[in-house]
Specification:
The protein has 890 residues and is an alpha+beta fold. It is built from 24 helices and 33 strands. The strands form eight sheets. Strands 1-2-3-4-5-6 form a six-stranded antiparallel β-sheet, with helices on one face. Strands 10-9-11-12-17-16 form a six-stranded mixed β-sheet, with helices on both faces.
Length: 890
C-alpha cells in the first residue's frame, strides 16, 4: 500500500498559499479559479505573479515574490486581491517599501518532488531550532525579521543560518546604584538634596538615534558638513557616523568629559534637555548648544504625557524615576514654545520630538524645498539570469578606475538622481578628487553614466548598451527628473501663500533647478499655481488617493476620503502634498496631528489628534480639526466632558509596514475582529461599550496586546449570558456541606470557566433551557473533602490550578462541569453538544444522569461512554466523534 501523497500548500490563518509550480497538484476547480482571477486582473501567470493565496470567503490573491527560489525569505513585490463573484480587483505594490512582507517555509508551497524542497525545509528546521518562529508578530516583515535573526546571534547566508562571532561587552560599574560618583552637570549647580544620575539615561544603541536618522533622511549627512553631538552619551551615534565617513565629534559630561567642545555646521542636542531637572540649567544647555551651531541645531526630547516606563514620582515639571534619573515629557506645543522663547527663533518640527532650528536661513529655505519632495519611486533593474563567467580577458582599466574612485562616483550618481539633473560643481562634495582624476566634473559625470549603462548592459547580455539596459538608464534619469520637477511644483505651489521673493535672493541650488526644469522664474511660479489650482479637481484628487493607497499610504474609502498617519504625508503623490500643504498654510504644522484625512470631493482636510497614538492599540481621539479649504475656515472639536473620547479601530490601516509597531498592531486588529464581540465597521462601538464588553468576556488591552484578564472577577459577575461565576464554584454536595470558598487562585482558571460557559454551556441553555450544575470547579482543598473516587489529574475540574510544586494539577488544562437538565433526555443533550459545540471531552453516564463536559486547549472532541461492567463498576468506552451517530451504541 503506497503512502498518500501530501498536497502542497501553506496555511496561514484562513488562507492557503501555493506556488504556481504546484498548481497542477490541485483539483481542477482551483486551477480554474486561478485562471479566472488572472483574467480579471489582466495578469499573465509566471510573468506577473508566482504565488496564489486561496482565501476563506471566496477571494483569491495573486502574489509576486521577488527571487522566490534564490532568496531564502522572498520579499513581496505586489499583490492583486480578486473577489471572484464581483470581479473586483484590489492592488498593492511594495516595490518602494522599506519593510516589505516576506515569506517563510516556502518549501510548503512547492510540490513534494521539487528538487530544492529539502534544501528549503532544512532552513526552516534550523530556524525552528533557534526559536525564530516563536513570536509570530516579529516574523512577517523584513526589518523585524532580520533584527530577530541577529538578536538570536545568527546571520543569513544563502539558505543557511550561520552564527555570529561573539562580541564581548564591558560592564560599566558607574551605572550601578551608588556608583555614580559626583553629580554631573551640563551647566549650573544641582540642588542640594538630590543628585540626578543623568548618565543612567544614556542608552546603549544598536542603531542610529531618531535625530540622526532624521538628518540622514533629509540629506544632511552627505559628508559635506561637520556634526557635533552635545551630550553624546556613550557615543554610539558618533561611532556609526565616523564609520560612514562623516566628520562627527562629541562631548558628554559623564562619558566624554575630556573631549573639546567646539562649533560645527550641525549640532545635535539629542534627548538632553528632557533629563535636566533644573529649568535654568536646561536653558543654559540649550543656548550653549545653539551658540555652537553654525548652520543647524537639532533638538530632540521625549514627547507625551505618559508615565516613565520604569515608574517614578512627580518632581518639579517631570518625573523622578526609580533609577535615580529625571525625565520630562514635553507636549509638541510645549517644546516649540520653549525653543521659540529661549532662542528667539521659530523651530521646525520634522518628526515626533525632533525639531530643527536653522541659523543659516538659506539652508532653511533649501530644507523647506527638499521637504516638499516625495520618496523616489525609481525603476528597479529587471530580473535577469546570473551572468556566465567570462574567460580571462585583458586588463580592464575603466573598471580599475571605477573601483579606485567607487565611493565618490557612487555619491555623484546618487546626487544626480536626487537632483534630477546633473549636479553643479558647487554642489559636489568630492569635486577636488573627481577633477584631479577625470579633469573636469563633466567628464566624471559622463564616466559614471557610461559605467552605469555598461554595467547593466553586461547583466542583461547587452554589452553595447543599445538594448533594455540602455533604455533602463534613460528611464531612470527621466523618472528622477520628473519626480524632482514635481517636488519643485509642490514647493512653488505652497509658496503662493507667501510674499514672492526676488529671483536673485533665491538659494543658488534653487536657481539652478528653475533654469533646468522651467527655464525661468515666472514659468516656475506658474507651474506651482497650476498645481495649487488642481487640488480643486475631485477627479484628480480621487486618482491621487487611489495611487497613494496602492502604495500603502493610508486607507482609502473610495469616493470619500484617504486617511493616513501624518508621518506618511511626505511620501504622497505631489498633488496630495499640495492639498495637505494648503491646509498647513491655513492652520499651521498639520504633521503635529496623528492622522490626516483628505476629503476627496468636499475640499476639506481633517486632522485627528489622539491621546498616546503610539504604543496604544486603541488610542482615544482627543481633538478633531476640520480645515475647510474652500471657505478658508477651521472647525475644532475637543472630546472633553460630557463627550466620551472614542477609540480608533483598525489602526493598522492608517500606518503601514514601515512603522515599527505595524506587525503587533495588525495582529491586535485581527485578533479583536476575530473575537466577534463588536461590529467594527464604520466608526465602531462607543468606548464604554468596548470596555464593558471586553471586561465581561475577560479580555484586557495592554499597550499593543489583547490578552486574557489577569484580574479575578467578583463571584456574582456574569459568566456568560445566563450564569454567574458563583454558579460554577458553589455547586455540588461536598461544597455545600463544607462551605469551602473553593475559589481559583490562577487567573487563567477564571478565564477557562468563562470559555467553557461561552462555548458550551450558553449554547446548551439557549437551546434546552436552564441547566442544574452538580459539580463544577474543584480547588485542591475541595478535592480533599470529596468522598469516593475522583481523578483531579485527568477530569479538568481543577482548571488551571497548580500543585505545591508549581505544576498544573490537570495537564489537560481547560475547565469542566457536570450538569443535568430536568425533564430532558441527557442522551439527546449529549448528541446536540457533539454536533453543535467545540467541546474537549464528554462523559455520558446515562439518559437520567448528569453529563460531564469540558472545554480546553487540546480540543480533543473525545466521547466516553460510561457503561456498567460485569462487576457493576462503570467501564469507559471511547467512541469516535466522526462516526455518523457516535451515541448510537447507547
Amino acid at each position: 500500500m503506497t503512502a498518500k501523497k501530501a498536497k502542497p500548500g501553506k496555511i496561514v490563518g484562513h488562507g492557503t498559499y501555493v506556488h504556481l509550480n504546484a498548481l497542477q497538484e490541485l483539483d481542477a476547480e482551483r486551477q480554474r479559479v486561478v485562471l479566472q482571477a488572472a483574467a480579471f486582473a489582466e495578469l499573465e501567470p509566471e510573468k506577473s505573479f508566482n504565488v496564489v493565496r486561496f482565501g476563506r470567503d471566496g477571494d483569491i490573491a495573486l502574489l509576486a515574490y521577488a527571487d522566490f527560489f534564490e532568496d531564502p525569505f522572498p520579499a513581496l513585490q505586489a499583490s492583486w486581491r480578486i473577489q471572484l463573484d464581483s470581479g473586483q480587483v484590489g492592488y498593492r505594490t511594495y516595490s518602494d517599501s522599506l519593510n516589505p512582507p516576506i515569506l517563510h517555509r516556502k518549501e510548503l508551497l512547492l510540490p513534494p518532488e521539487h528538487p530544492r524542497r529539502e534544501e528549503y525545509a532544512a532552513l526552516t528546521a534550523a530556524a525552528e531550532s533557534i526559536g525564530l518562529f516563536d513570536d509570530t508578530t516579529r516574523i512577517g516583515y523584513q526589518r523585524q525579521w532580520l533584527a530577530l535573526v541577529r538578536e538570536r546571534g545568527y546571520r543569513i547566508e544563502g539558505h543557511q543560518l550561520l552564527p555570529l562571532g561573539n562580541v564581548e561587552g564591558e560592564a560599566d560599574a558607574a551605572d550601578e546604584p551608588g556608583q555614580g560618583g559626583d553629580p554631573i552637570q551640563f551647566g549650573g549647580q544641582l540642588h542640594d538634596h538630590w543628585e540626578a544620575a543623568r548618565q543612567r539615561t544614556a542608552m546603549v544603541r544598536y542603531g542610529f538615534s531618531a535625530p540622526i536618522q532624521s538628518l540622514a533622511r533629509h540629506g544632511f549627512l552627505d559628508g559635506s558638513q561637520r556634526l557635533f553631538d552635545y551630550g553624546c552619551g556613550r557615543g554610539d551615534d558618533l561611532r556609526g557616523l565616523q564609520e560612514n565617513g562623516i566628520s562627527a565629534e562629541g562631548w558628554d559630561p559623564y562619558y566624554a568629559p575630556d573631549q573639546p567642545i567646539e562649533s560645527a555646521d550641525i549640532v545635535n542636542l539629542g534627548f538632553v534637555i528632557n533629563v535636566i531637572e533644573d529649568f535654568d540649567e536646561r536653558i543654559e544647555a540649550l543656548t550653549r548648544a545653539w551658540s555652537l551651531a553654525e548652520r543647524l541645531l537639532v533638538v530632540s526630547v521625549m514627547i507625551g504625557e505618559r508615565q516613565h516606563a520604569g515608574g517614578g514620582e512627580r518632581f518639579r515639571d517631570g518625573l523622578l524615576t526609580q533609577r535615580g534619573t529625571f525625565q520630562k515629557y514635553f507636549t509638541p506645543a510645549e517644546i516649540r514654545q520653549f525653543l521659540t522663547s529661549a532662542l528667539d527663533e521659530e523651530p521646525i518640527t520634522v518628526a515626533p520630538g525632533v525639531l530643527y532650528v536653522f541659523r543659516d536661513k538659506d539652508a532653511e529655505q533649501r530644507f523647506l524645498l527638499e521637504r516638499s519632495r516625495g520618496r523616489r519611486n525609481r525603476l528597479r533593474a529587471p530580473s535577469a539570469p546570473r551572468p556566465r563567467e567570462a574567460p580571462a580577458t585583458r586588463r580592464d582599466r575603466r573598471a580599475e578606475r571605477y573601483a579606485e574612485h567607487r565611493d565618490a562616483l557612487e555619491r555623484l550618481w546618487a546626487q544626480w538622481l536626487t537632483l534630477g539633473r546633473q549636479p553643479h560643481k558647487e554642489e559636489v562634495v568630492d569635486l577636488l578628487p573627481l577633477t584631479e582624476t577625470f579633469g573636469t566634473l563633466g567628464k566624471a559625470l559622463r564616466f559614471i553614466e557610461e559605467h552605469q549603462r555598461d554595467q547593466l548592459g553586461d547583466q542583461l547580455g547587452d554589452p553595447l548598451g543599445e538594448g533594455p539596459g540602455d533604455d533602463y538608464i534613460d528611464a531612470l534619469l527621466e523618472q528622477a527628473a520628473e519626480a524632482r520637477k514635481a517636488d519643485l511644483e509642490v514647493y512653488f505651489a505652497l509658496r503662493q501663500f507667501e510674499r514672492r521673493r526676488p529671483y536673485k535672493h533665491l538659494e543658488p541650488g534653487l536657481q539652478r533647478d528653475i533654469k533646468a526644469f522651467f527655464g525661468d522664474y515666472p514659468s516656475a511660479q506658474q507651474a506651482g499655481l497650476e498645481r495649487l489650482r488642481a487640488i480643486a479637481d475631485p477627479e484628480a484628487i480621487a486618482a491621487a488617493c487611489q495611487d497613494a493607497a496602492e502604495h500603502g499610504l493610508g486607507w482609502l474609502e473610495p469616493g470619500q476620503s484617504l486617511q493616513l498617519h501624518a508621518s506618511l504625508v511626505d511620501q504622497l503623490p505631489a498633488l496630495l502634498r499640495v492639498y495637505v500643504g494648503a491646509g498647513a498654510m491655513l492652520y499651521g504644522e498639520v504633521q503635529q496631528a496623528d492622522l490626516i484625512k483628505i476629503h476627496i470631493a468636499s475640499g476639506k482636510l481633517t486632522l485627528l489628534i489622539f491621546d498616546a497614538f503610539d504604543g496604544q492599540a486603541l488610542p482615544r481621539l482627543h481633538e478633531r480639526i476640520k480645515i475647510k479649504l474652500r471657505e478658508q475656515d477651521i472647525d475644532t472639536f475637543d472630546y472633553v466632558e460630557p463627550f466620551t473620547p472614542p477609540y480608533l479601530f483598525w489602526k493598522s490601516r492608517y500606518i503601514n509596514e514601515e512603522h515599527p509597531d505595524y506587525p503587533a498592531q495588525l495582529a491586535f486588529d485581527e485578533q479583536l475582529d476575530a473575537l466577534g464581540l463588536f461590529d467594527l465597521s464604520g466608526y465602531g462601538p462607543a468606548a464604554e461599550v468596548v470596555d464593558e464588553t471586553l471586561a465581561r468576556h475577560r479580555w484586557e488591552v495592554h499597550g499593543l496586546n489583547l490578552q486574557p484578564s489577569q484580574t479575578p472577577p467578583a463571584l456574582d459577575d456574569p459568566c456568560g449570558r445566563f450564569l454567574r461565576f458563583r454558579d460554577l464554584i458553589e455547586c455540588g454536595e461536598t461544597q455545600a456541606a463544607t462551605g469551602l470558598a473553593n475559589q481559583p487562585k490562577e487567573p487563567q482558571s477564571w478565564n477557562a470557566l468563562l470559555e467553557l460557559t461561552e462555548q458550551v454551556l450558553d449554547p446548551v441553555i439557549d437551546w434546552f433551557g436552564m441547566i442544574r450544575l452538580t459539580y463544577g470547579f474543584c480547588s485542591p482543598e475541595l478535592a480533599k473533602k470529596i468522598p469516593g473516587r475522583i481523578d483531579p489529574k485527568r477530569d479538568q475540574h481543577a482548571a488551571h490550578e497548580r500543585n505545591r510544586l508549581g505544576n498544573p494539577i490537570c495537564p489537560r488544562l481547560g475547565a469542566a462541569v457536570d450538569f443535568i437538565i430536568e425533564d430532558e433526555d441527557m442522551h439527546e443533550v449529549a448528541q446536540w453538544i457533539i454536533a453543535e459545540t467545540p467541546f474537549d471531552r464528554l462523559y455520558f453516564y446515562g439518559p437520567n444522569l448528569p453529563l460531564h463536559v469540558s472545554y480546553g486547549p487540546e480540543h480533543n472532541r473525545q466521547i466516553v461512554l460510561m457503561r456498567p461492567g460485569p462487576s457493576g463498576r462503570l467501564v469507559p468506552k471511547v467512541v469516535s466523534p466522526d462516526a455518523r451517530s457516535p451515541m448510537s451504541t447507547v
